[in-house]
Amino acid sequence: xxxxxxxxxxxxxxxxxxxxxRSRAGAWVIIASLLSLIVxxxxxxxxxxxxxxxxxxxxxxxxxxxxxxxxxxxxxxxTFTALVHLLVAVYAERSRHSQTRDTDYWPLSCLLHGSLAxxxxxxxxxxxxxxxxxxxxxxxxxxxxSGPKAYGPALRYLLLxxxxxxxxxxxxxxxxxxxxxLDIDLLATMIDANHTTRLALLLMTLGLMLKAxxxxxxxxxxxxxxxxxxxxxxLLSALVVKGxxxxxxxxxxxxxxxxxxxxxxxxxxxxxxxALLAGGWAALRTPFLKTLVAYSTVAQLGYALLALGxxxxxxxxxxxxxxxxxxxxxxxxxxxxxxxxxxMQATLGSKRVSSLKGATQTMPIAMFAFAVxxxxxxxxxxxxxxVAKWVLLQPLLADPVHWPWALGVLLGTLASxxxxxxxxxxxxxxxxxxxxxxxxxxxxxxxxxxxxLVVWGMALYSEPLILWLTxxxx
Amino acid sequence: xxxxxxxFDITLSVLLLILAGTALHVRHLYTGIVLFVAFGLLxxxxxxxxxxxxxxLAEAAIGAGLTGVLLLAALARIGPEPPPRRPPARALSAxxxxxxxxxxxxxxxxxxxxxxxxxxxxxxxHLDTSGVSHPVTAVLLxxxxxxxxxxxxxxxxxxxGVRQLQPAGYKQAHAWTLLRAWSRILAPLSVIIAGYLxxxxxxxxxxxxxxxxxxxxxxxxxxxxxxxxxxxWDDWPMRALVLMxxxxxxxxxxxxxxxxxxxxxYPPQWSGNLILLIEVAATLSIAASLSLLVIGEREELGx
Amino acid sequence: MSxxxxxxxxxxxxxxxxxHGLARLHHPIRRIMAINIMGSGTFMVMIALANxxxxxxxxxxxxxxxxxxxxxxxxxxxxRLAVAISAHKSGKQQAPEPNE
Lengths: 474, 303, 100
Description:
- The structure holds three protein chains of three kinds.
- By secondary structure, chain A is mainly α.
- Chain A contains 20 helices and two strands.
- Chain A starts with a helix and ends with a helix.
- Chain C has a single domain (about 5-95), classed as Helix Hairpins (Orthogonal Bundle), CATH 1.10.287.3510.
């Protein structure tokens, strides 16, 4: 547990130091992310060797105090968070186009890192409320770095995020009123299906779905994510929307009574399918590149929602593995995609998808990164996205009754293939390439490619990953 | 037959609902803000009625006072709203939906009149070892200190968020004249009360947040009276003040983890002093952050 | 019928009024007030719950103190953001006057 705490403390302390010194040196953040990644990796190894650990903060046992729990999933997410921060920080420091070099991006990204680490470790409903507020505020503060054009979407995001927090908080208050405790495992032992529990779960779910931009509460996401600076868009899509998703998964898979969870699972799964199709369709239609990538986040979150829904519907804990594999694979692929998109958009001087005409010639590496990341989003073997889809499809194909769900997944796959090929096909149109405004920066493009390579490398470790993630529910 | 107490409660609730409704929907925004402040003050009375004097103080200082100042300042700079666009007539469906949600909510809260309450007993059982004698302070700074630490980070993030905004030729604010006249009297008073609240917090209602908010109010008033220079993030003492609460808190947490007892464990013989140290640092941080949020970087004030 | 119940119901209504206001109103200041009223409703439910037993529940009171500070931070940020939006809008309308 000490290692996990260190992984949380390092970015927080770095943020405070940077703020006090008014330093905007990215090198500090890179070092801090690297250190945090190492200790998170060690924490993961410790959990693999010795099993789940818990910590009563301040020495006060639940229900009086707040409990931290370091299980395989939390350790994996800590590592993932640090890894994404490291990859993005290296790009943001190096690229001319990151829009973040001489800004408060650096301390803010450290605070984001710390907030996420606190969220992954906590098991207390009210403490999660505070971490959700942290995530919301830090996300908005980072979006407005890109200037006055982003203020409108940022304010909209902030107001919705606050309303969502209050939905969640009212749900927490109702549960506390009914059961008198805030720790999720204690609640799980007491909870039964009554009006109060149902409404509390409904309120918390709506709040979390709004914050995680899960269909149909996703409408704020494309504008907010697309208007942020490139490095921030990457962090937002890869990490920030996953925080509320984690809490949602915890609530339903660990705490909710089965007789409530099963019907809710059907709704989640249906919403997931619609998200896949609607998000994919919107990504296919939008004229703007970063908006396309942002809509792809809406669509890809549909897989997570589908996995959550089916997990609850059939009470099959193996599907947790599919959910979290999607989250990890999508996070890495989306980092690559946003960085490549941002780099191309800045170099080619236009936000439109059409400006990518002939980009395989002018910016081959960035375009390659986009395509490789897109391959994982589609689920081509042997990428991380493929592994996730494979785990999801296994129980779907096993029984003919479940085949309609498999059809939904297939349609979603086709939709994601369509919007990725829309970009790639245009980029191969080399007849009359759009000339870049600046000299393309090859090194920055390689940095954008790196996360995509990592996600394809995930396939090599698929066996232990599936094994670990299947065990997280037990 | 209704008892007098219930009658009072019902009147209070109805008044609150009416104030909230009119504050939101009244034609002139300025009137709306004034009603909103009145709503906040009435809310403070409600909290006192419900046996929560800590919250009554906090609501009066933070909810009504600071939020009111912030709203008025924003109104002065945004200006009156354009003539309202008539929204499409969806009032009926919204009304039906609202009533439906309300029924669900009421049905959910009805059984909550009685319920298990294990925590108050636990708090009083462990109060002796917490280092303070006021239960709310014990929860905030010992039992659930991690929430409080993160909450200081929330406040820091708000300050940082505001700092990311690019300035764009603000209009001069005119709403401050009356405040300025009063501020010379009120400012020293609020500083004294803040100190008193902080000291009181260890054994009676009061504590870091209320004290910090009042101190912030005092700083705002002093600044408006021209007795303080412009508050800037770029001055290092200001940054030190804002960051101090988190640094002290995190430092104590990490030292605890390092030197033995554990993350945020206070050694029993020192817990009283450590909590006092954290409270003083947090109060100053909260005061500095809130006053930066209200009047930070604004040179036209106090001239 | 007890005062706990009255305030539980009143808190629920306040929360709903705030949500409705957020959905229906356009001016940013009004929307921010609506969110604050939503918050006050939530806090009222929590404080009413705290007032159930013989002794009031210090944990809920502490949670509300935390909630209040979070609310005022977010409100201040949102208001400054709203001011910045309107300032940049009016700056654009009066162009080519340069920003300060």
